[in-house]
Specification:
binds guanosine-5'-diphosphate; globular; 10 strands; 3 domains; 10 helices; 5-stranded mixed sheet; 278 residues; Ubiquitin-like (UB roll); Rossmann fold; 38% helix; alpha/beta
């Protein structure tokens, strides 16, 4: 953010990075240009914004020309507790990792650009279903490539991007291609315990429900960190809030097992919750 830029400019710049469509990016850029400081030392910034406005206008024209069919063909519906995108350069092991993490069986070969279309699989993390999408290899000026726009919109909707590359030059190429994006990135390193790292980066908790005098139900329910009894009651059944009397909790969020709590009680990972209704 340039020196003495206004709050307005800052807001527009945030909107630009967080935008999930190229239309939204163009609108935010126009707002950045309108609200940017207009003095000698901001000439460089204004020029840069203008260049980006031209780039996104060109991409929008390209998208319009692209047969709707193709864009639709590659649009992905988010499923499960979260969506992970495996993103990287060619032959960085994305398909191999997708096969390792999920139930899918993508084509793996030493030939570059083996994966031509998004490959989708489901990862089971301790009972929680997580969608994993392999995005075809990223190349320079990716959005200008044949399906670049459609593939880029998959990267933008992902809750986490697992970044894969073979060397520093490829890593730089990837960060250059994503300079306009604000992505939740996890850089893949071979020996990592990836499923646990993914879970940590998603900032989710898994909570079990339980009926009185019975074992806890399986599978658990995924909720964002900071979720309360109200959130899980709503997730189990929308009427449970109205009928709610109290809940009992076992786990890290309470000092003693089976403690009685109310709707505002904040849950922890692995908690077990027993809802009591009127
Ligand atoms: N030695 C080694 N080879 C790998 C590894 N992961 C993938 N490969 C090989 O690298 C080539 C490209 O793998 P692939 O998963 O198709 O990469 P993608 O193009 O990024 O999807 C294939 O020949 C794989 O067998 C790995 O961890 N170690
Ligand atoms: Mg592949």
């Amino acid at each position: 953010m340039p020196i003495n830029a206004s709050m307005e400019y800052g807001r527009a710049e945030r909107k630009f990075h967080e935008a999930s469509t190229i239309q939204e990016k163009l609108e935010a850029l126009k707002e950045m240009y309108r609200t940017a400081p207009k003095h000698k030392s901001s000439e460089g910034l204004l020029k840069e914004i203008k260049t980006k406005i031209a780039k996104y206008k060109e991409l929008i024209e390209k998208e319009k020309k692209q047969k709707k069919g193709r864009k639709a063909k590659y649009s992905v519906k988010k499923e499960g507790a979260a969506t992970i995108a495996l993103v990287g350069t060619t032959n960085s092991g994305k398909s191999t990792l997708l096969k390792k993490l999920t139930n899918s069986n993508p084509l793996i070969s030493e030939y570059p650009f083996t994966t031509q279309a998004p490959e989708i699989g489901t990862m089971d993390y301790k009972g929680i279903k997580i969608q994993v999408i392999e995005v075809p290899a990223i190349t320079k000026d990716f959005e200008k490539t044949r399906n670049g726009l459609a593939f880029m919109s998959i990267v933008r909707i992902a809750d986490l991007v697992v970044l894969m590359y073979n060397n520093e030059a490829e890593k730089r190429l990837l960060y250059n291609e994503f300079e306009d994006e604000r992505l939740n990135i996890l850089e893949y390193k071979k020996q990592q315990n990836l499923p646990d790292l993914i879970w940590e980066k998603l900032k989710l908790i898994k909570v079990y429900t339980k009926q009185p005098q019975k074992e806890k139900d399986y599978p658990p329910i995924a909720l964002p960190k900071g979720s309360t009894i109200k959130d899980i009651a709503e997730k189990v059944h929308k009427d449970f809030i109205k009928k709610f009397k109290f809940a009992r909790v076992w786990g890290n969020s309470v000092r003693f097992a089976g403690a009685q709590v109310g709707l505002t009680h904040v849950l922890s990972d692995e908690d077990v919750v027993e809802l009591h209704l009127k």
